[in-house]
Amino acid sequence: MEVKIGVQNAARELSVETDGDADSVLDALQQSIKDESVFSLTDDKGRTVAVPADKVAYLYFTDNSGRKVGFGLVSGG
Asked: Which domain does 50 fall in, by range?
């Protein structure tokens, strides 16, 4: 699942691919807001994104359950 995180006063949103579900991400954000701490999310490659919880403007969830197809250049000789 892809999670896009909108951050207050930032021109671009953060995009994270994660194996979690929307409910667990929302629970983590709500707990971070309650604790007045940092909201962190780990992607499917083990990288972590951290944002002050009170600066999160929105979360946008996209289900990427379909196959990913990549395109590349192949040089022929």
From this structure: 2-62
